[in-house]
Structure formats: structure tokens, C-alpha cells
Amino acid sequence: MEKVITINNRDETLAFGEYLGKLLKPHMLLTLNGDLGAGKTTFTKGIGKGLGIKRIINSPTFTILKQYQGNYQLSHFDAYRLEGQSEDLGFEEIFDSDDICVVEWPEFLEDILPQERLAMTIKRIDDDRREFILKPIGKKYEELVKEIEYENNCHG
Questions:
Q1: CA 57, CA 112: separation in Å to the nearest integer?
Q2: What is the pLDDT of residues 22-64, one digit of tens each?
Q3: Which of 2, 125, 132, 141 is most buried, judging by how many CB atoms fall within 10 Å of its CB?
Q4: DSSP string of the chain?
Q5: Which residues form the signal peptide (predicted)?
């Protein structure tokens, strides 16, 4: 049960993230796939806003993990620099916690990621427009995707 949502620009990416952030519950995991510049961090900024986080969210490219406190704690991972590394980084404890986790470049953490998650792919249509493909894995994520009634779609 995939859902595809078309987003027309950066502001709508932020708005969709904020919308989804308000639906998220503790101990949820979102994985974000997409090319560099697809909008993964922009989308995560919107999620943070939806969670009531006041701090500026930026890419944890060099630190790999940044955590923010809002209505719930958000753990934002950017696993891009972990390609080919296999040492224990202690991330499993975070995935097992009540944190809401967003993982950019999840393929580099696949061995330790929980199976159940909302797997999202962001595809660039052109300079501004993106297609968000939501693939729920597990019952609570199927329920989450059913709840999403986001109508910023362009039909043309």
C-alpha cells in the first residue's frame, strides 16, 4: 500500500514535513531515500516544526546524528559517511527508544535498522517539484499512511 504525494516546491516540502510531524508518535522510524539535493533535510526541518522543535534543524552530515527536543525527541541521522563502516555505533539503543527517528541514507545502516518503518523515497521531478513515495512496513506505519490526507497534489 504505497502512497505517492507530489510536492511543488520547497515551501510545500516543509509544510508536508510539518503535517507528518504532527502525526508521528514515539518510537516511530522514517527512512528517507533520495539523491543529494532531493529535499531530505528540508523535509526533516518540517517534521521538526510539526514536533514543536524550536532549534534550527540542519544536516548531521559530519556528526551523523543530531537530537532535538520538542513534543517528542527527534533523532536525525545522516548515514552517508558510514558507507563501508561496520563498527558498533550504539544506534540500536536509539532505535529501541521512544525517539522519533529520521534516517537519511538508510542503506548504510540497513544491518541495524528495525524492519518496521515508514520508508520514503523522494524523487526529483524537476528543479522544484518532488514525488514523495511512502511505503509503510508494519501495521502502525500502514495506519499512519492511511491517516495521511495531504492534498497539496497537483493534478496536471
A1: 24
A2: 999 999 999 999 998 899 999 999 999 999 999 999 888 788 9
A3: 132
A4: --EEEEE-SHHHHHHHHHHHHHH--TT-EEEEE--TTSSHHHHHHHHHHHTT--SPP---TTTSEEEEESSSEEEEEEGGGGTT--S--SHHHHHTSS-EEEEESGGGSTTTS-S-EEEEEEEESSSS-EEEEEEEESHHHHHHHHH---------
A5: none
The low-confidence residues of the chain, meaning pLDDT below 70, are 84, 86-87, 151-156
Point out which residues pair with 65 in neighbouring strands: 77
Asked if 76 and 47 count as a contact pair (C-beta separation under 8 A), the reply is no
Q: How far apart are the first and last CA of the chain?
A: 23
What does residue 141 show for φ and ψ, rounded to 5 degrees?
A: -80, -30
